[in-house]
Amino acid sequence: MANTQELRDRNGYLLGRIIETSSTRHEIRDANGYLLGTYNPQSNETRDANGYLVGRGNLLASLLR
Amino acid sequence: MSDAQNDPRFPHMSEMGQGELAVYLDWIKGAQLADTEYAFVTYTMGRAQIKDPRHLFAIWLHQMGASVDRQVKSQIRRFFMNPSDQVSFASVQSAGWFDFIPWVYQLVATVPAPTIMPPTFVKVGSNDLPY
Questions:
Q1: Is the pTM of this model over 0.90?
Q2: In the Cβ-directed half-sphere of B22, how many Cα atoms lie within 13 Å?
Q3: Phi, psi of B106, rounded to the nearest 5 degrees
Q4: Which residues of B touch A57 (CB under 8 A)?
Q5: Best of A18, A62, A63 to disrupt the B interface by mutation (most B CBs within 10 Å)?
Q6: How far apart are CA B14 and CA B34, in angstroms?
Q7: pLDDT digits (tens, 9 = 90+) for B11-24
């Protein structure tokens, strides 16, 4: 089962979710479930929803807005 | 154990990034700031003595090379130019940004800050206005 983590602002408003769909794919989705980007821990790369490289390392949090 | 070693981001970055995380955590604690996008961008600019977030964005662009997608560019421009003080940065999902800081130190002197030309206007007299 996928491990899901909710991201909320200081007021408790849901901003999005991180879903670990597999050991090689962590997804960030907005509060409506729209895919914003993915992180691959094996390649250590973050990509946007279209697969374009955002950078090295886990940078998913900056794709939230 | 230090604050940094207890931080969830700590195992997910290089040794240099871990050093930056330790300094960052000390700084936000001392400044009584929340651990947010805003604090991180402010910290990075302060550490690298960068005055304009556009310079930080230019460094990121340079580090990424020529082929950066337009939408990704727009997203990361937003991150640097308009960082949120609501979105928490204290999660594994921001660990990679601490490994970006050493790149900033390395490139700050060679990647020029963008030149912003203020608009100039010619003063128009009332006689010059169209009828």
A1: no
A2: 10
A3: -70, -35
A4: 12-13, 17, 95-97, 99-100
A5: A62
A6: 23
A7: 999 999 999 999 99
- Candidates A8, A56, A63; CA nearest to A37 is A63
How many CB pairs below 8 Å do chains A and B form together?
82
Neighbours of A33 (CB within 10 A): 9
Report d(CA B83, CA A7) in Å as an integer: 16
Find tokens 């960068």 and name the residue.
B50
Up-side HSE of residue B96: CA atoms within 13 Å toward CB?
20
Q: Are A14 and A4 in contact (CB under 8 A)?
A: no
Distance from the Cα of A15 to chain B's closest Cα (Å) equals 8
ipTM of this predicted structure = 0.83
- Tell whether B24 lies on the interface with A, counting CB pairs under 8 A: no
Burial class (CB in 10 A: 0-12, 13-18, 19+), B102: middle
Name residue, tokens 């895919």: A35
Residue B90 one-letter amino acid: A
Q: HSE on the CB side for A48, CA within 13 Å?
A: 17
Q: Is B10 on the interface with A (CB under 8 A)?
A: no
For residue range A4-37, list pLDDT tens digits in order.
999 888 788 899 999 999 999 999 999 999 999 9
